[in-house]
Hints:
The chain is α/β, with parallel strands linked by helices.
Amino acid sequence: xxxxKGYDLPMKLTDQGKVWQQMGRRVEVAGRxxxxxxxxxxxxxxxxxxxxxxxPTCSFDYHKVLPILSQNFMVVIHDHLGxxxxxxxxxxxxxxxxxCDVTLLLWQQxxxxxxxxxxxxxxxxxxxxxxxxNNHFDLPLDVQSLTLCNGSMHVELAQLRLIQKLLLNxxxxxxxxxxxxxxxxxxxxxxxxxxxGQVSDDxxxxxxxxxxxxxxxxxxxxxxxxxxxxxxxxxRWIGALQQxxxxxxxxxxxxxxxxxxxxxxxxxxEIQNSELSLLPQSGHFPMLETPERWSDA
Length: 297
């Protein structure tokens, strides 16, 4: 294990952002600095809950639910490379397969032998790569269960936002990334909440500062390419879900305009050992919009 200081934080980091940064640490993984938060209740009697966050945000998505989840789990959340306080290398593939490699190496360095995996949005594709490897007995840890939350694994059903399509395009992507702003983030986040009043200006400011930390705008278009990978590796990842015997919980906010309800129903039908839980009156980020109900579920 190796902890390093990394880069200086933005001068205007919000109080929420400062607290979140102070709760975590950076760990060197394959020559990169990965920011990770481990819940303080590290009792050996509690199982690990290993969380994979979504796009374009970071581990801060879980700041409201971490105290709740920590009552029953040793929670581990890290920022994927290109996100939050982790490194954002400019010369990097940002392949979901490599993100899976980094995730597994991090968990190994933290000494984690087994745990329950919970994934949201972008993180669900990292999770499906984990499932693929688990099906082929190629994992260094025992995955005890899988929870999939509002991720467009069935990308053919996704209702992509205009900003995602523009960022995905090789010509418009870099331009849109440069033109992006806190106002842009605010507008697009509020459109995918069920109740836009549930996201505060301070929360948006914190997320924006974490996105842009360490010249993050320069890699936004690159990280968006994960959408193309969902098409490219559809058979690998959806096939893995169809074949897995892992106990799987499909936990879905019903009012998500991007990862629509039909996805949850299709996943529940095709994953043999699955249960389906639906959260009414909740949008794409249920852990932020309806944290208590989401945590209970």
